[in-house]
Amino acid sequence: MAELTIKQRRQIPRHAMPAQEAAERRSNFSEVALGYTEEQAIEEANRCLQCKKPPCVDGCPVEIDIPGFIGALHDGDKEESLRILKSKNSLPAICGRVCPQETQCEIKCVLAKKAEPVAIGRLERFIADWDLERGAATPEVAEPTGKRVAVVGAGPAGITCAADLARLGHSVTIFESLHAPGGVLVYGIPEFRLPKDTVYQEFGCLECMGVEFVPDAVIGKLYTIDELLGEQGFDAVFLGTGAGLPSFMRIPGINYNGVLSANEFLTRVNLMKAYRFPEYDTPVKVKKKVAVIGAGNVAMDSARSALRLGHLQAAGVLPAGPEEASTEPLEVHIVYRRSPVEVPARAEEVHHAEEEGIIFDFLTNPVEIYGDDKWNVCGMRCIRMELGEPDDSGRRRPTPIEGSEFDMEVDMVIMALGTSPNPLVFRNADDLERSRWGTVEVKDEKTGLTTKPRVWAGGDVVTGAATVISAMGAGKAAAGDIHRYLMNGS
Amino acid sequence: MYELLEKEYVTDITIMMVIKAPAVARKTQPGEFVIVRTDETGERIPLTIADFDRDAGTITLVVQEVGKSTMQMGKLGVGDGFANVVGPLGHATEIEDFGTVVCVSGGFAVAPMYPITRGLKEAGNHVISILGARSKDLLFWEDKIESVSDEFIVCTDDGSYGRKALVTEPLKEILEERGKEVKRVWAIGPAIMMKFCALTTKPFGVKTIVSLNTIMVDGTGMCGGCRVQLEDGARFVCVDGPEFDAHQVDWDLMMARQSYYKPEEQLAVERWEHRCQLEALA
Ligand SMILES: Cc1cc2nc3c(=O)[nH]c(=O)nc-3n(C[C@H](O)[C@H](O)[C@H](O)COP(=O)(O)OP(=O)(O)OC[C@H]3O[C@@H](n4cnc5c(N)ncnc54)[C@H](O)[C@@H]3O)c2cc1C
Ligand SMILES: Cc1cc2nc3c(=O)[nH]c(=O)nc-3n(C[C@H](O)[C@H](O)[C@H](O)COP(=O)(O)OP(=O)(O)OC[C@H]3O[C@@H](n4cnc5c(N)ncnc54)[C@H](O)[C@@H]3O)c2cc1C
Ligand code: SF4
Ligand code: SF4
Ligand code: FES
User: pTM value?
Assistant: First the structure.
């Protein structure tokens, strides 16, 4: 790499991400972060010190050779940069956009100690977008092995596993319960953060590799796992069914009209495209004052989607029912029982949410939801919290402050409290061991082999709700082990 | 694509459709349902599997035109198809030899009740069927139900056919006459009818099963939109049901939840009818 001294490199400021203005993006579902220009990317690449023992690599769940891909980019060899990225990460355009970099690779960057870290994720996205723009090359597929693998669930874990196995010459069928592939990337994460075109482009042409995609197939109902391995003739099964089961608080009023899980709200908006109702048939409501409970990515996505729907209604683009039609600005709150320090969402999303006008109520927890005579939400009783000793998660445990209850005026409450694996797939599969949180027990995290013979699992169904990159990594690891098994028979 | 093989209007607003879905047919049990999406912009709507033929690889749905999606289904012709048919979903009906049972169906629910009635009859029960509709022209499949029942009662709200009564009247009489002899009651139909059947059987302490038709999105337990409040907490109708103990259900809340999207549904219908008028003119 070139000519600059370490000192000079350290003086280059981190490049800000070009983005749509907050005032504008509040009324559309287009992508917020626009991506670096080539010039910006090369200058940002210039900030990397090319550490001999790069700590950033330890922060990445799939150990991408970060200085390697950044160095190649800086030297103008994008092809090589892409090759390095892709050798560990099949979904760089997606991960570059949604990885929580600030707690993974970037937090470990040596620059982070004194100044801002290298924008590793943004560079990753730059290279991946460049690749997608020039159009996909036809993937090379090995000679057919005659082995058949069933992949259950078409999220990042399943798609990665399927693509890797297909490339190795195995015949792969993906069974997905929804009508579209993508898992959370398609039904959960909104268009403005992760365009669906990008997702599908990055998945590439799976059919070209001979992968068969079967939508509308709820495993556990349509076929059991045993049937896949038996009469359906598959040699191995990979479970990548995610953690899609929503949880609701156990408080009075939780089932009133207008209390939704984030899953329902986001599925209506993203998968069913309710933001384009009535062109699309599935409706969604937003009212005047929305409270989103929780402060993870799911909560940020819900709050920012609600805000956009509100603005689209106010602009007359989205039809509003008589009770919603209002000239008052829509108010969206994030209600979180801990403090700003503990917020689990990606920093960039929190920042964007604040810019867009989302209101944060920290150290606040709902205790009751009020309904009117039609069982519609009309308010929420909350209690103030304080932080005590650290709990199992290492975060300080919130405890209610006695007598601090107060009422919030809200007409819609979205529960974004975390999810667990959907048990449907486990019907009639009692020999598949699971933890008391409902996640699948694997014998070895590096392979994803479960207690049930010829069944592997990976992604959120094993870890509980986690990240795209870890799901992708688990799919890749399992593909490697399934291949080994199929070729050696043990 | 799931091909529409047969289509027939069994009343002015009730369509019977036979659809090619071999994998679904292979697994279906009475009481289960499918989620259907007509086309790329369509919504996912739940419909009970009213009949199935494993050998032919078909399922039969009976759909009442109540809104945009179901009206659109009415426009489909034989040879057209549905974008998606997901199922079988939900739990199958608990069918065993209970003794004497009563099956009450209202409106289009004659269809979902049919495989249940047949199953109960085959299991050895003495089956009493009560069919109800607003008027004669909304009745269908009487012969099918009668052929699998030991006793058979038809009533209409307006008296245009059979007895002039609400279904709860003969139901109450049967319970009064036969007391503890009746081991179980099934009631399927509009929420309001199921609610009143529940109120009718409650004093007699007869276990009553209803099949709930809450609003659904995915039908697989991932959204919670279908949840219903029972005495001991909430359940997801799509995975825990759709059948529940009628005496446990919070009916008023359930009915309020069903009508949450009324203004939007209304808008979708108006837009659809406008489109149909334009197409008719063109
Ligand atoms: C709103 C939201 C925002 C998020 N934001 C981020 C982020 O910014 N960064 C990040 O790294 N992570 C984020 N995550 C987490 C991340 O999306 C998940 O960790 C990741 O998608 C898990 O991948 P997976 O393949 O294990 O499962 P999923 O993506 O959940 O996919 C599982 C698939 O399996 C299907 N399935 C389930 N059961 C069955 C069955 N019985 N039969 C057939 N198919 C079945 C499901 O329909 C689904 O398509 C977010 C999650 C949510 C919900
Ligand atoms: C388990 C189950 C089984 C069902 N079986 C049948 C059946 O066999 N035949 C039949 O005609 N109907 C059945 N229904 C009801 C059917 O799903 C609705 O009538 C249909 O969704 C209406 O759609 P629409 O667009 O035509 O009408 P809309 O105008 O959207 O709605 C009209 C009515 O249908 C209800 N509804 C709207 N959307 C949904 C939805 N996504 N899920 C459930 N209800 C909704 C509304 O509460 C409203 O009362 C069943 C419902 C459930 C939950
Ligand atoms: S995959 Fe994620 S964690 Fe790894 S380098 Fe890329 S952005 Fe960082
Ligand atoms: S730690 Fe930072 S400076 Fe060092 S190689 Fe990694 S990205 Fe570059
Ligand atoms: S329909 Fe979504 S959980 Fe039942």
Answer: 0.94
Q: Which residue, among A71, A88, A87, has the nearest Cα to A123 in the 3D structure?
A: A71
Phi, psi dihedrals of residue B196, rounded to the nearest 5°: -70, -30
Domain ranges for chain B: 2-89, 100-258
pLDDT tens digits, residue range B95-119? Answer: 999 999 999 999 889 999 999 999 9
Note the ipTM here: 0.94
CATH of domain B100-258: 3.40.50.80
Question: Are residues B234 and A255, on separate chains, in Cβ contact within 8 Å?
Answer: yes
CATH (residue range B2-89): 2.40.30.10
Going by C-alpha positions, the residue among A324, A166, A367 that lies closest to residue B261 is: A324
Q: pLDDT value at position B70?
A: 93
Indicate whether residue A111 lines ligand 4 (CB < 6 A): yes
What residues of chain A lie within 8 A of the CB of B73, using their CB?
Answer: none
A255 and B257 within 8 Å at the Cβ level: the answer is yes
- Cα B3 to ligand 2 centre (Å): 21
User: What is the distance in angstroms between the CA of the first residue and the CA of the last residue of chain A?
Assistant: 46
Distance CA(A161)–CA(A478), nearest Å, equals 7
Question: Model confidence over B194-243: pLDDT tens digits?
Answer: 999 999 999 999 999 999 999 999 999 999 999 999 999 999 999 998 99
Q: Which residue type does A351 have? A: H
Nearest-by-Cβ selection for B225 from A264, A323, A374: A264
The reply to whether ligand 3 has any atom less than 6 angstroms from the CB of A93 is no
> For atom 36 of ligand 2, which residue has the closest CA?
B215
* End-to-end alpha carbon distance in chain B: 28
Instruction: Dig out the tokens for A105 from the structure.
Output: 């690779």
Burial A270-307, CB ≥16 within 10 A → b, else e: bbbbbbebbebbbbbbbbbbbbbbbbbbbbbbbbbbbb
CA-closest candidate to residue A323, choices A377, A269, A280: A377
Pocket test for ligand 2, best of B64, B70, B141, B237 (most atoms within 8 A of CB): B70
Q: Residues lining ligand 5, judged by CB closer than 6 Å?
A: B 216-219, 221-226, 236, 238
Going from the first residue of chain A to its last (490 residues), give the mean pLDDT of each consecutive group of 10, the final group possibly shorter: 76 90 90 94 94 94 94 94 92 94 93 92 95 81 94 96 94 96 96 94 86 95 95 96 94 95 96 91 90 96 94 83 60 95 92 94 97 94 93 86 95 94 89 91 91 95 94 94 90
